[in-house]
Amino acid sequence: MSKPLLSRAIFRAAAGLIIGCVLMSSACRQDPGEADEPNKPPVVSAPSRQGSPGPQLSVTADTPLKIDAVHVSPQIKESIPEAPLEWAKEIVCQLGENYRKAGQQNPQKSFTVAKAEIAGLAPLETGSAALNHDIVMYRLKWRLYADHPENMIMQSGLIIENGALTEKSCEGDTFLILVRFCGDTPEDVWERINILTSEQIKAKYSLPVLLEKYGSPYTAACMEEFSAWKAQGGEIPVKGARSER
After folding, report:
1. pLDDT in tens, 2-43
2. Nearest CA to 101 among 154, 148, 65?
3. Does 194 fall in a domain?
4. Alpha-carbon gap, residue 55 to 114, rounded angstroms
5. Which domain holds residue 157?
6. What is the Cα–Cα distance from 166 to 24, expressed in whole angstroms?
7. Rounded CA gap, 77 and 84, in Å?
8. Residues 217 and 202 sit within 8 Å (Cβ to Cβ)
């Protein structure tokens, strides 16, 4: 997926949240730029495990988080395809990096984000498969660990749980929509469609007319977002083309 298309998809998904998280494709790989407004960390539109200790703190406030530093359990690595997993890592990395920078802005309530974790990444059954493509939705659950989590600025829907900042929903409130093309190409081709929150899905895709048409707000989100992606220039792979992913 081209950078302009990716930027548009992320920007649309973050409309109800704080906008600074949309530039996820580069910020995790370079030193942070100008500081964000104090105490206003950008937040990505977003299965709790009880009793699990937080990872050992191992970086300083001046150390940018990297995608490779995002912790993913072996179970998730083995069960989730590379395309949605890499996207989830980018999102969580950018979220952690934005909070890391925010933690340096208030000396009286400073904190250092040391670890970011994908605590859950699970596909949802949406019934949106077609002959040569499958529109898939993944529910993302993330955690951020800090040396002083009580100082972390919590937006609506976030809590501190077992020493980590996370979402109130035990299963996660961030949803990734992708399309997987298969059959007409030598290998599967994945494209990123959009990121939505549960609040956005409820507000936009739980309308009676859409529920009557699709039966589920999640199916409605997948089908309508895919249609919007195509209308905005999303490219369907040509038969015989080989993916570079």
Report:
1. 444 434 443 344 333 333 333 333 344 444 333 344 444 433
2. 65
3. yes
4. 8
5. 3-231
6. 19
7. 11
8. yes
